Amino acid sequence: MLLTDSTGRTINYLRLSVTDRCNLRCFYCMPKEGIVNKGHAAVLTYEELLLVAETAVGLGIEKIRITGGEPLVRADIIGFLEKLAGIPGLRHIALTTNGLLLAEMADDLYRAGVQRLNVSLDSLHPHTFSEITRGGDLKKVLAGLDAAEQAGFPPPKINCVIMRGVNDAEILDFAERTLSNGNSIRFIEYMPAVKEDDWQRYSISGEEILGRIADRYMLEHVDKGPFSGPSRDFRIPGARGSIGIITAVSGHFCSECNRIRVTSTGQAKGCLFSDTKTDLIPWLRPPDRVGLAGVLKEIVSTKPERHDISQAGYTHTNFTMSHVGG
Ligand code: SAM
Ligand code: SF4
Questions:
Q1: With contact defined as beta carbons under 8 Å apart, do 66 and 96 qualify?
Q2: Residues in CB range of 271: below 8 A, 6 or more apart
């Protein structure tokens, strides 16, 4: 079954957040003081998350990415992933993690049926990494990357948010990792989530990132795989990993957007930057599969055509990326 929105885009990808808790406090994602965690009752149970997933797959979703907060801090996440992997028709399960707990959990994640890992890593220097994450230990993430491969995963994709004056001097070091370690790198433009009036001071466009790499290395285009998102992908000849640019802010990402999002408290969003969200709780408590399918279809059919972040005068309600799931 094909799920299409009003502009003809096929929507086959659900980002499902399982928690808004996190063991880091990245400065671009969460306020310094952290966030008030939603109480247990507000967060969807695993049964409710599975109902959302099953219903979405029944409508045409083929890929689900588990995100958070930090998904690996939720108790019994492995048991949940095993059940998720058993949903007929679900072709691809990916998980985005900060990697802190990966060294100890990689084997279980692989056995549970997760097919692909994305690890967020914004600096290869311990001090800068600790500053960005407000205290994170880089060694643990690097150990997690190794453990993932030993467990049987393909080299994890690294998500790297590039910020001017913070880590932009490391663009080439990350690009080099596609040659030396086989990781693919996705450079993500910094997005204005934790509201700061001067957020643009960190901004570096995907074009500039690409330009800096192209000054040093030859780059060839890479054709997209069936489940790749709206990144533009390149490869340094001979590298095992690819280099992707996700121009969520500057680029024309929206025309290829294939995703919807559901937060850990059951708020569904057709667009990350839209203030419109739909509360799924009335269809989950008590469970109403038919009603839930109807409301998910409605979210897809009213998915905004594009966001306006780069337009003058753009405003949105402040949100924490850890709640929406990135
Ligand atoms: N905790 C997990 C992690 O960090 O990978 C999953 C959740 S995190 C919210 C998902 C992704 O959102 C991460 O790759 C993170 O770098 C990205 N992200 C968070 N805030 C962002 C921002 N302001 N701009 C761009 N990307 C952001
Ligand atoms: Fe946590 Fe991920 Fe947000 Fe960092 S980006 S604070 S690791 S949820």
A1: yes
A2: 254, 257, 303, 304, 307
How far is C-alpha 75 from the geometric centre of its chain's CA atoms?
20
**Complete domains list, the chain, with CATH:** 13-324 (3.20.20.70)
Taking only the tens place, the pLDDT of each residue in 226-280 is: 666 678 899 999 999 999 998 877 655 677 788 899 999 999 998 876 777 899 9
Please give the distance, rounded to the nearest whole angstrom, from the Cα atom of residue 118 to the centre of ligand 2: 13
How many DSSP H helices and E strands does the chain contain? 10, 12
Atom of ligand 2 nearest to the CA of 136: 7
Give yes or no for residue 68 CB within 6 A of ligand 1: yes
pTM over 0.85: yes
Amino acid at 72: L
Question: Regarding beta strands 267-269 and 184-189, do their DSSP bridges make them parallel or antiparallel, or are they unpaired?
Answer: unpaired
